[in-house]
């Protein structure tokens, strides 16, 4: 595992610049604020069109045979990181990563192809915080019945993928009852979903779900690195220009030291996520360990960076008008998503033979 | 500091007062009955008993105040709704008492205490947060008035307040601390515009206040021209004492919410979260016992510096506890009750949803003095560590970089 | 419990000043360094004579009927704190607190009287880190057999109190085999003790042991407050006089903020210990909770204060010649003593109904 | 940064060299055989392959060094005992390479690399720790020599060193950074006295060095008079890279000791300690992967600033891990092996007792740049935050308060 490449290739750098430039134009703090204040759309559809169709990024993990780019985990992580940097309200993680991975390569060409093109979106119907085996819904005679609480990005999904007794089923979004929640992170709204004998077709075995969750943990960690990175950069920039006591606030040593520590933590998170992504790309020899590590370290740095961002902005960081809170809410919500650091540390303990109980 | 008034004396006076003024009738009656009762209590010196006679008090020891409050509460008397007039009681009143003229004390203190007039505080500005002395709202002399222009921010209760205590720059040509004066502003005066300020919780607890040629008669100045910073110290000292200082039972406050969440859902328990909950429980109990000790020091007439520890740890703890609650709740904690823009008059840390607590607690280390400023104060005033090299104290305010 | 007095009385203040003045003269950093560098005496006998006989402080917890001052817990805590402030190498905690409390009021007049006068010292023969029920030695025909590892201050004790099957036995120090350990904290050296049919007499029931351990936890916390207080004061004083970059080092904000936080923690620890001591003095309604709280908070602040003291002194704090390391070692060793914070948190969880497992 | 030397070229040269010089014979022979082999390796340019030809290298890329080291190790060749000559290899050599005259490079580099001559570093002083540029050891010109007076401290290996790199004040009348010069001192010269410095572990790893009229020929000056600060930057930059930079497997270093302690004693396990151990395991693995990424960046010729993160977290982690180990061991952790004053030449963090680790790790955040200085460096050089107001950079050194 020590020959995994943890630094970015020129191609990856180009992709990053491209996505970042697009987001700088089409997904500003103000546009996300407007989106969130509206409290109406399930995601930013215009932005998603650009990401998915314009830049062709929805199919990075879809097999080439089905019209995708074929397991481009490193590229997907770059995209996730940049979208996290912009707290972009688009279903990349939920549709292009989680649902796509859950479908696996054996799924019907048709759906994967349409996900790859961005024509449709899908969501895996599990609670956002899920980290181990999901509760299974009942499937009978081609119809699914049951309820799932707190599903990310399900409100706008064209298709829901439902783990049921004998496999993963696809259900049309229009065939279910979806209730929007006032979500802590409105840039990735949650909703409760009810299936009442909703027509469904079997699309994949259940074995793809753990794989999707593991990929989700790593990719959400990439997103968290982007998020933390925005928080650090924005705070540093603000502290350079904000004067109090006749000095730039950024010249005060206590703040400098905290930001230095944050930078160290971010640097480490970047390395850990790079490792988890490289491991995924290489076939996942160290998969569970790497994903758990990434999710722990990513969650911790994202929350800390967002909290420091709010605090160091002082009063302005506590207002609705400043975008800092969007990052705070995303950070805290993603910390829970796909398993909190606490849950992943517990899993890791088993994986690396550091059990709490005597074996 | 010995007071002539004993607890027995005070109790006797209260009994006599209650014999003459029926508390139950006042509480059960209309607003007018309530107000009449409160005015009579003020006039009898039983409002804030440590205030001077004639200004709602009896010149008694500060430690006797709970005796009076408890006695009136026990008798079922109406109170002055202290949660609503906290700024008046906690900040304006002590400042007026110390720095006001006798006319100002007479005019302002009675309706302040009875709650007839709500007060707010106009200190902070967008460009002057931690560095309050750097504020830029201008007050220019014009005959017997001062004319004000500027913008204030983070003003709770401004939308319902009758009066404001206000700090403004009367001389930009001297170093910043020397050019400030302290005023009482009529919030209903022309040129005073109040706009709600929405915060990250979605609500608008605070306001922005725009001053555009608003006039203040010179008789509403508190302290001398140029002495505003000194006067403001009285206000700020009392603010720090009043934040986070109430007596709580064990598991009172936010830790009780976390403990209840732990107890109610065994399925959510993990060893890691247990460690976190126990560490926070210990820290919360330590903070509570510290506050208890501070109150005993105050009562003994030896206040000491420990109060600043209370405010600092209150902020840190609220943030850590509310964060842990979200961690414990997992998915369920991501569900808020609403994002509607309410206008709450009080912060309710135990009766709302976990997301609210997490978000609102972020303000605890900013409002009323940031945690960073508090650490500076502790380091310099308590520990006696040297100040940093200052670049802003000898230059005329107008020449400072900003 | 809310009417417990947490502030010091004038008498207690006088006691504190008296003990501090004596220690300033007779127990300096240099004298403790010499003691430790010698690696020979079990404790500082000259200093102990002053504490016990000169100032009459060995009998504070001995009942008046047996020649003591009678359960003066508040005074004992003042003494413990001041001795901690001076890292004094004397057996006050082990003999005048732990052994004395373990003897209880029913013990023979003779031994308690001699402990009160400081003529003899005793040690409870349990491991220094003990926090729950001790392992019991075997007692037969008036003789005790067995071994105990890592007993504090046992090397110089005239009498060892041994928990055995049917009660607490007193054994003469000269009748046992004691092996000195190179202890992390040489100001309170540990030794291993072997009893080979050592002549013993029954002096108290075993029920006194938990009481002694609870008192030990509170009193060692008082000691830790004194220790932390020395570390903070000494660091502040050094940072005022040490110049780097043309400024006193104490004017650098990052250090100021860390010291402010440390002061807050110390202020809290002082209140918590005051509460535990006041509770003991009042009869112990909230005894176990108060003692565990004190031990947790005291241990944490002592270790942190000592670590900051070493770090903020820079190179000089890392030398043998500067006394900072004496405090670091005492802090870390007392953190383990009578139950680590971790053990006490676990106990507390049960006491305050916050169990890890579902009941 | 592209190098003409390929890995294949290098391997070919090494094979040729090994065919001519029997590595096993050298390793099995006496000191003279060993030394002859090392000298030959140096002369063949296979010592530090990124050094220039003629100075032990081939002008190859830095990333090829492991190829050479691994190949020689695999062949069973004797090495130059790098642990013992770390200061020479890591600090003196790069400085001499960049700032030395050709005579100096010729004289010093070969015996430095072969280990014939041990080096030490005379920078820190009792009054100049973090503020190295404030140092006071005086160097006065006397004919072709400089005469030195002062005291240096924290000098590892001084008691066995043949040479020292030394920073001294040649002009106290200019601001502090401008008045320093950089020398090579003969440690065997008269007026150089080395005394062991005992540290809190009980051992004396370091020394104090007293300079009393010690003479240095001007030919042993590195860089111009007054350029000492600039020259020292090369040394310090390399010091920071060399501390904590080695490649380790998972659970390499101190975390492996803690993990082993956890696995070996189920009885000591508690949920609280489990959380601590797992948090540290994650942090240690994160630090390890960060170091791996830094090495890949270096190898790619894009060093970046992440290396300073490695040193800072190395110190914090070592302290936290060793503290946790003591907490886990409880009573048993309070037993040390000995308090005898040894004179170790290397720090052994995994082979000693837990008390040693805990105590020795305290030095990690002080030696080689305190963690505080490192945070300043990261904040200013990496994040670009403004410097604090400086009071010491424009005043003559002799007029600074100290």
TrEMBL record, chains A, C:
Task: Give the matching Gene3D superfamilies.
Answer: Acyl-CoA dehydrogenase/oxidase, N-terminal domain (1.10.540.10), Butyryl-CoA Dehydrogenase, subunit A, domain 3 (1.20.140.10)
Query: Cofactor(s) for this protein?
Result: FAD
Domain named Acyl-CoA dehydrogenase/oxidase C-terminal is located at 215-349
Matches recorded under Pfam families = Acyl-CoA_dh_1 (PF00441), Acyl-CoA_dh_N (PF02771)
Q: Does the keyword NADP apply?
A: no
Concerning InterPro entries, the annotation shows:
AcylCo_DH-like_C, AcylCo_DH/oxidase_C, AcylCoA_DH/ox_N, AcylCoA_DH/ox_N_sf, AcylCoA_DH/oxidase_NM_dom_sf
Which SUPFAM superfamilies did the record assign?
Acyl-CoA dehydrogenase C-terminal domain-like, Acyl-CoA dehydrogenase NM domain-like
What the entry lists under PANTHER family is as follows: ACYL-COA DEHYDROGENASE, ACYL-COA DEHYDROGENASE FADE28
Q: Into which family does the record put it? A: Belongs to the acyl-CoA dehydrogenase family.
Q: What is this protein called?
A: Acyl-CoA dehydrogenase
At the highest ranks, the source species' classification is: Bacteria, Bacillati, Actinomycetota, Actinomycetes, Micromonosporales
TrEMBL record, chains B, D:
- Cofactor section: FAD
Stated name of the protein:
Acyl-CoA dehydrogenase
Q: Could you tell me the keywords of this UniProt record? A: FAD, Flavoprotein, Oxidoreductase
| Record-annotated Acyl-CoA dehydrogenase/oxidase C-terminal domain positions | 226-383
Family affiliation: Belongs to the acyl-CoA dehydrogenase family.
Q: Tell me which GO cellular component terms the UniProt record holds.
A: plasma membrane
MF-aspect GO terms = flavin adenine dinucleotide binding; oxidoreductase activity, acting on the CH-CH group of donors
Please state every residue range assigned to the domain named Acyl-CoA oxidase/dehydrogenase middle. 120-205
UniProt key word Secreted: no
Q: Which intervals hold domain Acyl-CoA dehydrogenase/oxidase N-terminal?
A: 8-116
Q: Does the keyword Glycoprotein apply?
A: no
Database matches in InterPro entries: Acyl-CoA_Oxase/DH_mid-dom, Acyl-CoA_Oxase/DH_mid-dom_sf, AcylCo_DH-like_C, AcylCo_DH/oxidase_C, AcylCoA_DH/ox_N, AcylCoA_DH/ox_N_sf, AcylCoA_DH/oxidase_NM_dom_sf, Mycobact_Acyl-CoA_DH
């Amino acid at each position: 595992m020590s020959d995994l490449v943890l630094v970015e290739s020129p191609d990856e750098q180009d992709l990053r610049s491209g996505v970042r430039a697009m987001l700088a134009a089409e997904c500003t703090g103000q546009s996300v604020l407007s989106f969130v204040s509206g409290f109406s759309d399930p995601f930013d559809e215009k932005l998603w069109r650009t990401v998915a169709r314009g830049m062709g990024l929805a199919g990075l993990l879809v097999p080439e045979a089905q019209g995708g780019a074929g397991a481009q985990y490193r590229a997907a992580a770059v995209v996730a990181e940049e979208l996290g940097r912009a707290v972009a309200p688009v279903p990349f993680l939920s549709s292009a990563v989680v649902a796509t991975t859950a479908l696996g390569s054996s799924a019907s060409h048709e759906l994967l192809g349409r996900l790859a093109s961005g024509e449709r979106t899908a969501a895996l119907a599990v609670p956002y915080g899920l980290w181990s085996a999901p509760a299974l819904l009942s499937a009978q005679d081609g119809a699914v019945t049951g309820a799932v609480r707190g599903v990310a990005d399900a409100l706008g999904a064209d298709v829901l993928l439902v783990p049921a007794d004998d496999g993963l089923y696809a259900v049309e979004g229009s065939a279910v009852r979806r209730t929007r929640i006032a979500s802590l992170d409105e840039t990735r709204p949650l909703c409760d979903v009810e299936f009442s004998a909703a027509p469904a077709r079997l699309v994949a075995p259940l074995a793809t779900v753990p794989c999707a969750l593991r990929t989700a943990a790593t990719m959400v960690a990439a997103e968290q690195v982007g998020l933390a990175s925005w928080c650090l950069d924005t705070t540093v920039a603000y502290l350079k220009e904000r004067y109090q006591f006749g000095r730039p606030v950024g010249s005060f040593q206590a703040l400098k030291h905290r930001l230095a520590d944050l930078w160290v933590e971010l640097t480490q998170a970047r390395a850990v996520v790079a490792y988890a992504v490289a491991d995924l790309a290489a076939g996942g020899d160290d998969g569970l360990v790497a994903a758990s590590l990434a999710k722990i370290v990513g969650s911790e740095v994202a929350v800390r960076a967002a909290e420091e961002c709010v605090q160091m902005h002082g009063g302005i960081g506590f207002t609705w008008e400043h975008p800092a809170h969007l990052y705070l809410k995303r950070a805290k919500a993603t910390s829970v998503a796909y398993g909190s650091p606490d849950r992943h540390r517990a899993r890791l303990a088993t994986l690396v033979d550091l059990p709490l109980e005597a074996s | 500091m010995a007071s002539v008034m004993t607890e027995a004396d005070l109790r006797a006076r209260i009994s006599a007062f209650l014999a003459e003024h029926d508390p139950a009738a006042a509480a059960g009656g209309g607003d007018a009955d309530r107000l009449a009762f409160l005015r009579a209590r003020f006039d009898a010196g039983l409002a804030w008993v440590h205030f001077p006679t004639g200004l709602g008090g009896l010149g008694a020891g500060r430690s006797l105040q709970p005796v009076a409050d408890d006695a009136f509460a026990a008798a079922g008397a109406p109170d002055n709704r202290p949660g609503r007039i906290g700024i008046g009681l906690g900040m304006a009143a002590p400042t007026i008492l110390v720095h006001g003229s006798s006319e100002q004390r007479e005019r302002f203190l009675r309706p302040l205490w009875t709650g007839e007039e709500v007060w707010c505080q106009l200190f902070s500005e967008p460009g002057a947060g931690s560095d309050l002395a750097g504020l830029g709202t201008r007050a220019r002399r014009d005959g017997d008035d001062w004319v004000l222009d500027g913008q204030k921010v983070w003003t709770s209760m401004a939308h319902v307040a009758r009066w404001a205590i206000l700090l403004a720059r009367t001389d930009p040509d001297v170093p910043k601390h020397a050019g400030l004066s302290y005023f009482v502003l009529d919030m209903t005066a022309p040129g005073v515009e109040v706009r709600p300020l929405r915060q990250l919780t979605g609500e608008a607890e605070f306001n922005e206040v725009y001053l555009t040629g608003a006039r203040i008669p010179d008789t509403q100045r508190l302290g001398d021209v140029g002495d505003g910073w000194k006067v403001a110290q009285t206000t700020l000292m009392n603010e720090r004492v009043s934040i986070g200082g109430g007596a709580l039972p064990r598991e009172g406050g936010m830790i009780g919410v976390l403990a209840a969440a732990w107890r109610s859902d065994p399925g959510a328990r993990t060893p890691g979260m247990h460690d976190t909950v126990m560490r926070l429980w210990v820290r919360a109990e330590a903070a509570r016992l510290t506050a208890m000790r501070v109150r005993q020091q105050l009562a003994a007439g030896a206040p000491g510096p420990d109060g600043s520890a209370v405010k600092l740890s209150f902020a840190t703890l609220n943030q850590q506890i509310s964060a842990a609650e979200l961690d414990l709740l997992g998915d369920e904690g991501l569900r808020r009750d609403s994002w509607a823009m309410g206008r709450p008059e009080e912060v309710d840390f135990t009766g709302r949803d976990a997301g609210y607590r997490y978000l609102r607690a972020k303000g605890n280390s900013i409002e009323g003095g940031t945690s960073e400023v508090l650490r500076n104060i502790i380091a310099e005033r308590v520990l006696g560590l040297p100040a940093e090299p200052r670049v802003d104290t000898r230059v005329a305010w107008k020449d400072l970089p900003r």
